[in-house]
Amino acid sequence: MDRDLSSFGPVLVLLESLLHVFPSQTLWLGGTALAGFSSALTNISSRSSSSQRLHYISHRDTAMTSLRLLPLLHSLLILQVHLSDQLEDNKIPPSLCTGHPGIPGSPGVHGSPGQPGRDGRDGRDAAPAEKGEKGNRGEPGETGVRGLTGDRGEAGQKGDRGQAGECAVAPKSAFSAKLSDGLTLPLNVGDAVRFDKIILNEQGDYNTETGRFTCKVPGVYYFAVHATVYRASLQFDLMKNGHTVASYFQFYGNWPKPASLSGGSLLHLVPGDQVWVQMALSEYNGFYSSTKTDSTFTGFLVYSYWKHSAVFE
To answer: Quick check: keyword Membrane in the entry (predicted)?
Structure first.
């Protein structure tokens, strides 16, 4: 038996080497060996002649010895499966790498370009550079579109009360006068008719001695004359500084009752100008006045040209 096991020692070493180099082929070889052992046992039992039995005794012993080695072969097969998994995963144990280094292979074909790499980290901040020269002023840009109206702001605080101003009174100028009852006047051509009875003359601009109005406030004035005509026809002129402004005439035809003649005009005056009523013809002097009828001369300021009028009393 010891001789038989030693005779199988080289076979076992060869089988182990084959497992390392040709794992797939060794599996097939192990299966074939088992099949051979089984076939040998069958042949031995089927032969009837003694000589043949003697011939196959040695084969039987060999087969039995091989059967005793089946557990070892089974372990080798399990080890081969484990090693084949490692070989497929390119995980060769260092203990199996006992051969000489192979010849270097030829250079491989250039691979395709790889994917772009990630962005690198930001570099360190550089030292501040020196301030450059001021550039030229650019051209003005185009005017933008007008923006929307903003919301109304809050009301501001009330300001301080201002100082009291000077009290300004609108300039005044007005008068009205009439002839006295039954007054007989020398009414020659060119003479001013003196309306001697004052009705209103607060500013004193009308003079009863001369029958003339003298302007003190520049502006526009309105003058009106109302005459009662009786016993004779009447014609008179409204004068300004010796010039006729307007003329009025009323014919009298021996009527039992008096007639009337009225007229008026707007005049622009400056300080110093004078206005009065003057007879136009000596024979047409029919001014008349009584307790029941009057002849009047009236004038007043319509508006002044002074922007900063003084106070008049």
So the answer is: no
CA 295 from chain centre, in angstroms, equals 77
Locate the domains of the chain by residue range.
174-304
Residue 40, burial from CB neighbour count under 10 angstroms (0-12, 13-18, 19+): middle
- Give dist(CA 169, CA 174) in Å, integer: 15
Reported as a pLDDT band with limits 50, 70 and 90, residue 301 is: very high
The per-residue pLDDT for 44 is 41
Mind listing the pLDDT tens digit for each residue in 71-88? 666 666 665 555 555 545
Strand partners, 301: 221
Length of the chain (residues): 313
Tens-digit pLDDT profile for residues 163-177: 866 556 778 999 999
Q: Which residues contact 18 (CB under 8 A, 6 or more apart)?
A: 25, 26, 29
**pLDDT confidence tier of residue 186, bands split at 50, 70 and 90:** low
Q: Is 236 in contact with 280 (CB distance < 8 Å)? A: yes
Tokens 């009393």 belong to: 313
Task: Give pLDDT, residue 215.
Answer: 97
Residue 38 CB neighbour total at 10 angstroms:
12
CATH T-level topology, domain 174-304:
Jelly Rolls (2.60.120)
Contact residues for 216 (Cβ-Cβ < 8 A; gap 6+):
173, 203, 205, 271, 312
Q: How far apart are CA 10 and CA 4, in angstroms?
A: 11
- pLDDT exceeds 50 at position 4: no
| Residue in this structure with the two tokens 């007229």, named with its chain if needed | 263
| HSE-CB of 287 using CA atoms within 13 angstroms | 31
CB 66 within 8 A of CB 39: no
Question: Residue 180 is encoded by which pair of tokens?
Answer: 């006295």
Q: Residue 51, class by beta-carbon neighbours within 10 Å (0-12 exposed, 13-18 middle, 19+ buried)?
A: exposed
